[in-house]
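Complex 501.
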Amino acid sequence: MKTNFPKDFLWGGATAANQIEGAWNQDGKGPSTADMMRFRDPKSLKELNNVHANTDITDEMIAEALASTDENSYPKRHGIDYYHHYKEDIALFAEMGFKVYRFSIAWSRIFPKGDEVEPNEMGLKFYEDVIDECLAHSIEPIITLSHYEPPLYFCQEYNGWYNRKAIGFFMNYVQSVVSRYKGKVKYWLTFNEIDSILRHPFMTGGLIESRFPKEEFENVMYQAMHHQFVASAKAVGLIHQIAPAAKVGCMTTKLTYYPFSCKPEDVLATQQKMRQVYAFCDIQVFGEYPAFLKAKFKNNNIQIDMTEEDARILKAHPVDFVSFSYYQTSCVAADATGLALTAGNTTIGIKNPHLPASEWGWQIDPSGLRLSLVDLYDRYRKPLMIVENGLGAKDTVLPDGTIDDQYRIDYIKAHINAMYQAITQDGVELMGYTAWGPIDLLSNSTSQMSKRYGFIYVDLDDYGKGTYQRSKKKSFYWYQEVIATNGASALEKIEPVKVTV
Ligand code: BG6
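Predicted structure with 6-O-phosphono-beta-D-glucopyranose bound:
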C-alpha cells in the first residue's frame, strides 16, 4: 500500500553561495577563499581524490590569483551567475513545489574583509531580496551562515580561524544578518560540514598551510576548529535571543564506513573512523568534547587553548536539530594493502565490492542513508534534516534540447525510499530533505561544471563557455511530482529488513 511522508515534511533543495552566485567582486563583496580556487581539469581518479592537495594554497598562489582577472581559471568567481538570475531560479524552485530552499550567505558580501565594524548594505540587501523572493513563492529559507568562504583578508591578515579574534568577527556578522532577517528566517545552520576543516583547511578555515611548521599543522587545524565550535555555540545562543522562534542546526558530513571484513581488527578500525565522524557533531549536540577527541589530543600531544568560558558556552548552547550531507559510503580495513581504493566526499576509502559508483568514484548506497539516519537519531535523539544528497553526473543535451537524467531519478528515488523506511520502520524523526544542487552548480571539490547535480540544467561548461541559460531536465518533472504527492509517487513496497541467524 502506498502512503506518504509526515505532513509538513520540508522538501526542497540546497546550494552554497560560492558555488552559484558569481559576482565575486561586485557591490562591495570582498574576495573569499573560494575565489582563489584555480580550476585544474582532473585527468584521473587519483587526481580527483587528492582534494587536500588540490585545495591547498600558498601566499604566492594567492598573490597570483589576486593579480588575475580571469574568471574561467577561477570558476567560482562566475558560478552560474545566480547573483543576476536568482529570481528566475527561485521561480523554477517554486514550480517544482519547494517548501524550503537552503542557501548560504557569503560572509565577504556582508563584511568584505571580515574585520569591519559596519556591514556592507548592498550585501545585506541582496540576501534580503533573495529571502523576500523565496517568501513570495511560499518557500521557507534555510540559511547556512558559513559554507567554505571566509573572507580572504581575514585569512591573510589573521590566519583565519586559527586566531581567536575570528570568533568576535564572526559574531559581528551573525548579529548583522540575524537582526536584519529575523522574523523572515526560521531555520539557520551554523557551519557547513564543520569537520571539513581537516580535509580542506584553507577553504573551510582560511588556513594557509605553508605558513605553519608541518609538524604543528594538525594542532593548528584543531585549534581553528575549536574556535568554530565556540562561534557556532555563540551563534546558537544569539539566534535564540534575537529570534526566539528560530531553530538552529549543526551540519556534518555524514561519512559512513563499513568494515571491509568481519575480522575484529577491521571492525575496530571502522569504529575508530566512525568515532572521528561523530566527534564533531557530539560537541555541538552534547556541548562538550567527546572521549574520542580528548584521548586523541592526549596521545598526539595536541594542545588546544580552551578556556573555562569556552566550555561554558559550548554547554550552554546545544543545537536544536542535526543536519547532514550524505552521498556515499566506503570501507575501512586495518590493513589496506592490495585493496582497491575509491574517492568519496573529499575523502578516499576502500572500495566496497558490493556497491556501484558514480563516474567520480563515489559509491552509491541508499541503505547507507537509512543506516546513517538510524545511527544519528539513536545517538542524538534530536530531529534530523538531510540538507545535501544527490548524484554528480555528466548530462547530455539531446538534439531536441531535452535531458533524460533517469540515473539521477533512480539515485534520489532510492534514497527517498531509504528515508521513508527510516521514518516508518525505525522511528526516526526526519524534518526534511533538501537535494544538493537542484540547479547545476560548480563542484566544490573540483570546480567542475560537468559534475552536475541539478534538476535544472545550466548551459555552461568547465571552461566558462555557454549562455547560462536554464532548462528543465526529466528529473525536474519527477521531483515536482514527488513533492506534490508528499513523497508518495517515489515510494516502493517496503520489505522488512531480513535478519537470519
Ligand atoms: C558537500 C559540500 O560536501 O558536497 C558541497 O557541502 C559540495 O559544497 C557537495 O558541493 C558535493 O561535492 P562536490 O565536490 O561534488 O561538489
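The pocket of 6-O-phosphono-beta-D-glucopyranose is lined by residues 16, 19, 192-193, 253, 325, 345, 388, 392, 436, 443-445, 451 (CB under 6 Å).
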